[in-house]
Amino acid sequence: MAVKVFIPTPLRPYAGRQSTVEIEGGTVGEVLNNLTARYQQLHQHLYSEQGSLRSYVNIYVNDSDIRYLSKENTKLKDTDSVSIIPSIAGGIDMAEIEALEEVHLSKEEILRYSRHLIIPEVGLKGQKKLKTASVLMIGAGGLGSPLALYLAAAGIGKIGIVDFDVVDESNLQRQIIHSTSDVGKSKLESARASIEGINPNVIVETYPVRLSSENALDLMKDYDIVADGTDNFPTRYLVNDACVLLDKPNVYGSIFRFDGQVTVFDAKLGPCYRCLYPAPPPPGLVPSCAEGGVLGVLPGIIGTLQALETIKLILEEGEPLIGRLVLFDALKFSFREFTLHKNPDCPICGLNPSIHKLIDYEEFCGIEPVVKQKYDFDTPEITVEELKRRIDKCDDFYLLDVREPNEYEIANLGGHLIPVSELTERVLEIDPYKEIIVHCKTGVRSAKAVRFLQKAGFLKVKNLAGGIEAWTQRIDPSLPRY
Ligand code: ZN
Description:
Blueprint: E1 2-6, E2 20-24, H1 28-38, H2 40-46, E3 57-61, E4 64-65, E5 81-86, H3 94-101, H4 107-112, H5 114-117, H6 123-132, E6 134-138, H7 144-154, E7 158-162, H8 187-198, E8 203-207, H9 216-220, E9 225-228, H10 233-246, E10 250-256, E11 259-265, H11 273-276, H12 289-292, H13 297-315, E12 324-329, E13 334-339, H14 361-364, H15 370-374, E14 381-382, H16 384-392, E15 398-401, H17 405-410, E16 416-417, H18 423-426, E17 436-439, H19 444-455, E18 461-464, H20 467-474
Helix pairs in contact: 1-2, 7-8, 7-13
The protein binds zinc ion (ZN).
Zinc ion binds next to helix 11.
């Protein structure tokens, strides 16, 4: 015999996100046993470690509280329904309510947030939650820009930002927190000025460092939520692992050209990034935004969705994007949602985790440390100054440009264009009797091409260190940078 069980909103993430489920059982105890057998994560929310029903969870059969019937032995008919009513709907405990009573909004804040205050789901209580919340943003770039601006406008109490970059002209196409007058300044200071301009009530903490295994736990530990706006795999795994180890939600977004992804990783309630992608792609397979490009408005959309999910987590309202990955295709204008499953074999959040502390993420992602790359004798290099001397001397060599045709169109050094992705098929076009000097935009793709050519039997191959970017900066500033 099956009865209908009503699942309250806060517990739905642990019950396949369903509001009702049909469960077999002749008594309330049997139904709850079968329910938690089917949805194992529910167990800890309904039962204490001693195995008794938690005091803040009440069970009703139809309209009656089972404490006034026969408790868990209450018999059921198949027309009965069982409702789980947690006394802490929304997950607020008394300590939190008392803490919120201590928080006050000034007259100015009440006016500022008035459009929030009149929404029942936010109200004074929600606005106070936002005011006491803290969010650490990793990166003040494309995703971080709208994220920081909307979090600030919404009245988040403290926003921390980790970034070590300076504003470059090529950032302005999408990083709307920075202005033309900020070019050359630290991104942190530029972001701070924009945030304070929007909402002076926000405390802004800035960390001018590269996030690393050494500093990540320390930086994140005092924040409620981490929002990942990074664009590289080592940092993405680092943010994930640190969040899992610290039990913090990670509001995740990523972008490439016209495609965006957004989800919330929270290993307590659902999968983590490693459940989704246990291992990173080989280096060079997935190009970065700097190499592949990104439509300027796309991080605006995805970063705004990250802001939305962050605010929902703080308000404890609605259904968070935990265990769901949303893909946005800007060209098609389609949003597709995929269910993500927690991987029981996940090396960090699974049943028998093998990772208990932060590791070396550059090594994990197969990226050679910068120092090693620089002095790697297998990849002989030439500087832009040396190349200039040799061009001036009319030296005979084969200059190979391994960038994409649209990059070539923006600026080129007159080299033979064979994109790195086409090198295997077009290798015969290269003159094997000449010395080959390979360049790309910054020297990364060309180093890969040099290694490929060496393996293919070309003996005299050199990589142009720093690529056309270094050439433009040090030899010919009249060439456009991109
Ligand atoms: Zn995991």
